[in-house]
Amino acid sequence: MSQSAVIDIQDKPSTGKMITLSLQHMFAMFGATILVPQLVGLSPAIALLTSGIATIIFLFVTKFQVPAYLGSSFAFIAPITYATAEAGLGGAMIGSLFVALIYFVVALVIRLTGYQWIMRLLPPIVVAPIIIVIGLALSPVAIDMAMNIQVDNQSVYSMKHFSAALVTLAAAVITMMFVRGTISLMPVLVGIIIGYVYSLLIGIVDFTTVKEASFFAIPDFYLPILDYDVVVTANLLLIMMPIAIVTISEHIGHQLVLGKVVDRDFIKEPGLHRSLLGDGLGTFVSGLLGGPPKTTYGENIGVLAVTRVYSIYVIFGAAIAAIGTSFLGKLMALIATIPANVLGGISILLFGIIASSGLRMLVDGNIDFGDKRNLVISSIILVIGIGGAKIHFTDYFELSGMALAAIIGVLLNAVLPYEKKNTSSEHSV
Questions:
Q1: What whole-number distance in Å separates Cα of residue 345 and Cα of residue 342?
Q2: pTM, whole model, 2 decimals?
Q3: Closest Cα partner for 293 from 49, 58, 67, 97?
Q4: How many Cβ atoms sit within 10 Å of the Cβ of residue 418?
Q5: Chain-wide mean pLDDT for the chain?
């Protein structure tokens, strides 16, 4: 048993304690998990449902050894938006299935050959700038949602609505900076709740749909629809699949951090191939049902670190709680009434944190920007990704934005030579 654990991975707490601890994990992931579908036009209920299902799948695949919770991935916000415009929500789900297939292939190769090759393929100098791109490329979306309202399909500035965004942002920042304990790990949820209360006070919330909703409701499913048009299908793959480069890197990072928290080496046991397979299967099932792609959640790793309760039973309980909550029609309808400006306010913080986490990865990786190789790779990734560069293969096929930046980053890392360090005697002391 880990010396620091209050309740270790295989320990089962009492029923009352397990319920409390499981709800705590559900609340930690709740805000971010429902935010992603609301930004891309999916159902918050289906996001909750599939997060619970994906987590249970992950636990089974990893032989109940890795206490991780799977929630909605922010890396796919822009790709799902683009894919939906290209082929509808059903088409975007097809893209999610293909992303999962990449996980399966990578997991199989790791199982057969070991994991060292993927560490060399995706070093911090490639992954960190791509993460920065994800955050900064989404920033115009956050600002538009925070400041404007939609009038006749046009964005119109409203100070009244913008004030709700500012209150939401302030509440989240204060929670992060000045609140202690587990609540400090839930700034998204706290910010949304306070922003929502403020929105009620200034009269910008419409309860019409809540009155009409039933107490029990089946979540809205968006079944994958394969368009047999080769052009549409190819574009879906080009939009969605390259982002797996980022999410696989994120997955590896989470496994390393989680291993440090609970004093285990999850890369070796149960193995990176198993955790990647679990993540991929979770994303695959989510895509089949109409939910966003999944990823292990840093928020829940934070809860583990603070509480030192690592029990797999608690994570399983959180998954069951999420599944049950997804069928509460009134609650889901209430969530749908959250003003876009509140979501915009919290997105300003979240998207900024995503970009900043990329910067942190560069610092933690001791990346030397005096090395011209590092400077070239990061510079090209950032400009191509944020600038929205496009490559048109024909009049119909194109690769653009984050997807293009990810692929070019991997290629540059593979082909650019490392600088030779000057070790001549004239520079010796």
A1: 5
A2: 0.81
A3: 97
A4: 8
A5: 86
Rounded (10°) angle between helices 124-137 and 244-262: 110
Q: What HEC string does 310-364 produce?
A: CCHHHHHHHHHHHHHHCCEHHHHHHHHCCCHHHHHHHHHHHHHHHHHHHHHHHHH
Distance, CA of 411 to CA of 121 (rounded, Å): 9
Contact 311, 11 (CB under 8 A): yes
At 395 the pLDDT is: 58
Alpha helices in 114-147 (DSSP H): 116-121, 124-137, 139-147
Q: How is the chain split into domains, by residue range?
A: 15-142+210-339+353-415
User: Using CB atoms within 10 A of its CB, is residue 343 exposed (0-12), middle (13-18) or buried (19+)?
Assistant: buried
Most confident of 159-168, 222-231, 345-354: 159-168
What lies within 8 Å, CB to CB, of 301 at 6+ separation is 68, 254, 257, 258, 261
CA distance 418 to 337: 53
Rounded to an integer, what distance in angstroms lies between the CA atom of residue 240 and that of residue 127?
A: 17
